[in-house]
Design brief:
The structure holds two protein chains of two kinds. Chain A is mainly beta. Chain A is 0% helix and 55% strand. In chain A, the strands form two sheets. In chain A, strands 2, 4, 5, 9, 10 and 11 form a six-stranded mixed β-sheet that branches. Chain B contains no helices and eleven strands. In chain B, the strands form two sheets. In chain B, strands 2, 4, 5, 6, 9, 10 and 11 form a seven-stranded mixed β-sheet that branches. Classes of the chains: A mainly beta, B mainly beta. The A-B interface holds A 9, 32, 34, 36, 41-46, 49, 51, 90, 94-97, 99-104, 106-109 and B 4, 6, 31, 33, 35, 40-45, 48, 50, 56, 58, 88, 90, 92, 94, 96-109, 111.
């Protein structure tokens, strides 16, 4: 079975500072990995996904994430935070191979606050 | 515009009452999902459906029921057996449930509160 751990339920950065949201996964098979963003009282929106192609994945709104198999990590970064980045971020993992998408597992989420 | 709609945005349930949450998609997706979101716990899968007239229990199906009579629609009923229904409910869909790399697209959610 696969699982996701997001380190830090709350992260606060200043506007213009680096954003780093941490995600570690556990999977018995090569995983597919996703980052979603959720604004207050809204659904989740896909930021980016890793599906065994390039290990550095670029997403929307200037975010990117790097798959590191040796560290079982898929951390999300953005060089310069903007006020509009304030939201909750979820990391998710799906098993590779002959499994169904219903096996997707979500982390508990990290709330990002951006200070002016 | 294609997307997923959920209604109502807010729903109030009285003790012993069944309530139904609506989810509709016009993306022509085969698979649909219901998740429950509680603070600090991420998303937990309630039910999923890979095809019309078929659905499977997820991790926390007790106290919930679903139907999939049309490809576009996947309503969720929260029954009186669900003793702690207060949560944010999210519906999602994907092109094919059998393709694990397929993105799940989410609706805007329904917040259920108990009176």
């Amino acid at each position: 079975a696969q699982s996701v751990t997001q380190l830090g339920s709350h992260v606060s950065v200043s506007e213009g500072a680096l954003v780093l949201l941490r995600c570690n996964y556990s999977s018995s098979v090569p995983p597919y990995l996703f980052w979603y963003v959720q604004y207050p009282n809204q659904g989740l929106q896909l930021l980016l996904k890793y599906t065994s192609a390039a290990t550095l994945v670029k997403g929307i709104n200037g975010f990117e994430a790097e798959f590191k198999k040796s560290e079982t990590s898929f951390h999300l970064t953005k060089p310069s935070a903007h006020m509009s980045d304030a939201a909750e971020y979820f990391c998710a993992v799906s098993p590779g191979g002959l499994h169904n998408n219903n096996d997707m597992r979500f982390g508990a989420g990290t709330r990002l606050t951006v200070k002016p | 515009d294609g997307g997923i709609t959920q209604s109502p945005k807010y729903l109030f349930r009285k003790e012993g009452q069944n309530v139904t949450l609506s989810c509709e998609q016009n993306l022509n997706h085969d698979a649909m999902y219901w998740y429950r979101q509680d603070p600090g716990q991420g998303l937990r899968l309630i039910y999923y459906s890979q095809i019309v007239n078929d659905f499977q229990k997820g991790d926390i199906a007790e106290g919930y029921s679903v139907s999939r009579e049309k490809k576009e629609s996947f309503p969720l009923t929260v029954t009186s057996a669900q003793k702690n229904p207060t949560a944010f409910y999210l519906c999602a869909s994907s092109i094919l449930a059998s393709a694990v790399q397929e993105t799940q697209y989410f609706g805007p959610g329904t917040r259920l509160l108990v009176l």
